[in-house]
Amino acid sequence: MDNPPKPRFALVVGVTGHRPNRLPEEARAGVEQSVVDTLEAIKREAIGVHARYAEFFAPDQPILTLTTALADGTDIMAAEAATSSEYQLDAVLPFLIKEYEKDFPAPALKSFTNFRQKARAVLELNGSRADEGKAYEAAGLALLDASDILVAVWDGKPGAGRGGTVELIYEAARRGMPIVRIDAEGKIPARIYWRGLDDRRAASVHMDDHPFAELSDKLSAVVDSLLRPPRSAAEQRDFRRYLDEKIRRTSLRLEFPLLMALLAVRVPRWSDFSLPRPRQLADGLHPDASGSRVLAESFGWADAVAVYFAQAFRSAFVSNFVISAFAIISAVISPKPPWSVFDVAFVLTLVVNTAVGQRSHWHHRWIEAREVAERLRVAVPMLAVGTRSFGPFGDPPTWTSWYVRAKLREAGVRSATLDDAGLSTARKPLLAFVTGQRAYHQATARRFQRVHDRLEAVGKYLFISALVVVSAHFLVELFHPDLMGPELKRWVVVASASLPALAAASYGIRVIGEFDGAARRSARMQAQLEGLQSILEEGPHSYDSLRDIAHQAAEIMLGDVASWRLVVESRNLAMPS
User: Fold this and answer.
1) What does the alpha-carbon distance between residue 24 and residue 153 come to, in Å, rounded to a whole number?
2) Where does 337-464 show beta strands of DSSP type E?
3) What are the backbone dihedrals phi and psi of residue 65, each rounded to the nearest 5 degrees, phi first?
4) How many whole angstroms separate alpha carbon 316 and alpha carbon 576?
5) Residue 502 placed within a domain
6) What does pLDDT average to in each consecutive run of 10 residues of the chain (577 residues)?
7) Same domain for 130 and 205?
8) Is 545 a domain residue?
9) CATH (domain of 213)
10) Structural domain count, the chain
């Protein structure tokens, strides 16, 4: 693969609804037809979106998936309609298969077995009959995690208990997910409810408080809003540029690693010059990436691009401040030829370095690739647990969030049996992720704090040295002016200008590098992740607890990414003033 992978076009429809006891026999045929028509309409609109934005997606065939618990009644009805309409099936089961089969009477059991065997992925949760409501709720939440739009067959009446259809509908509404409601009694036509249908963006958890419209009137706009890339021409341009990134085997911008070596913070590494390949980074993220290879490969590319541009940008601003100091020193030594040649060379190098960095967008490309990499890094252990971050639903603000969500759709639901052994297996990548990130932030906090402190010390000592030189010069001139010859005076002037110039360069590197802030953020991250690591190491864990820990880890990591981006975006490459 010569470039970062485009996402494969995918859309995931979740389904929930009543069992046969709440599906009136006289309305059943109409409800079945409404389910068929709804899935066909969603498919038609999705194919239209794919055609309109084909350049942003891989050339593979679109993936349309129905995610279902395969319960008797609505779920089986929807599975039959979906497979007839060339949807793939992903099944999320509240119990292990042998236990779940007890939910089905003989005729329905045959249908359940048939569709389970046809499913692309089956995620078996180890719910307990002692708390059935909790088991159905866990499966429902996993189903919503994987879905973009929910089709709900509901009679409009109160729910029958925990984990039922009504609770799932309200949870989808709370998340901001579009909901297609099909009346279980066949009295009203299918409607789509979504707070994105008007400008109020209502936050109520009750679906009936949300704006709604007839399905035929608004489905096209809803599906387009869910799947299209960002409207912004600038975001689309940046995404195209990312897709054109190449594998970079080496980096010649070594100024930042050399600075850390000069400050005795870190010795240079071979990897500073010979860069890791995307495949290596993907394998290092999750070597046994069952079901997550799509995410791991995309992460490898994003991480490789981010590593390259982070070093290029940091090296460029280090060079700018050092070169500007040298330009001042050269000018003070002698403004006349042949020394003036050095002045010209320093200034020209400064201009070219800045122009190339700005024109090539090193700073922006680093930020974007790093955000994609961190979002995908979080997604892999979440997928192992059978969950993912949900939302946002609707117009994506940036190409980075759109791209990651498209990749999550492509990855789909993990196929796994999460019994005690399966949960233990799923816990490993989550623990490895938390442990690895804790160690990374511990090292980063220590390293960047040292860079900050030593640059600060260098600046302080340079200013003190300048003060000593100037004070000594003043005293000699005051009491023994005959001791200072012309040549010595010239070098005093050189030192008086050079030392503050170098001190100012060290200050500029500290400000743009923002090492102190990065160290503080990493220290906070380390403390938060240590808490999660302790919980994970205790064990054993239920599905609910692992899912909760995975979402906590994602919240911590993505919150850090957001705060980091907010800070570094204001520190672009510029010529020192």
Assistant:
1) 12
2) 416-418
3) -130, 140
4) 12
5) yes
6) 94 96 92 97 97 96 97 96 96 97 93 96 95 94 96 90 90 93 94 83 64 91 95 96 96 96 95 94 70 87 97 97 91 77 89 96 97 95 88 86 95 93 91 95 97 96 91 82 76 86 94 95 96 90 93 94 91 84
7) yes
8) yes
9) 3.40.50.450
10) 2
